[in-house]
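Exercise 7. Predict the structure of LuxR family two component transcriptional regulator from Albidovulum inexpectatum.
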Amino acid sequence: MRILIADDHDLLRDMLVAYLGAEGGIETETAPDFRAACEAIVARGPFDLVLLDYKMPGMQGLNSLREAMELAGGQRVAIISGEASREFAERVLEAGAAGFVPKTLPAKSLVNAIKFMAMGEQYAPISFMTAQEDAATNPLAERLTRRELQVLKGLTEGKSNKEIARDLDLTEPTVKLHMKTLYRKLDVSNRTQAAIVARDAGLF
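Solution. The predicted structure, encoded as tokens:
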């Protein structure tokens, strides 16, 4: 099974590659933007599944989705997004995509969704707009402050310190301080490990 993951966030790509690699029998390739993804499809496709980040450079909505789907004799293409509405997900599916995957899915569900789509099925989590775990009931969340949880959520979505700082209206040095505290509390040494711990705990 061959999967192409196209996302401009290094952390998210690394995390998905790590999880899919652990499954066995899955080969992964990555691209940082839409053009690079298209070049990979033309040069080394077809893939069993192409996963496109809706917000990465080069993406022009459903037009880019359709373009990728037509490459190399036809591709199964799914959209992954950190911010999208149910209406948008429905439009993605109506356009013929293999599925719509929110970045907020727990790691195990995310991997299962990717495998499901690669095997020829169409996927979208029915309640992704309404079913959100209450972080306060999560054992891991109880060890973190509200601000640390917000920073960790941004981290699991593959955002840089600068992007997290902008989203939370903080300075980058403040975000870095929160990161240091998070690493200590989660007993990890880098961003990828922190994101994996959060995903494994079902926190986001």
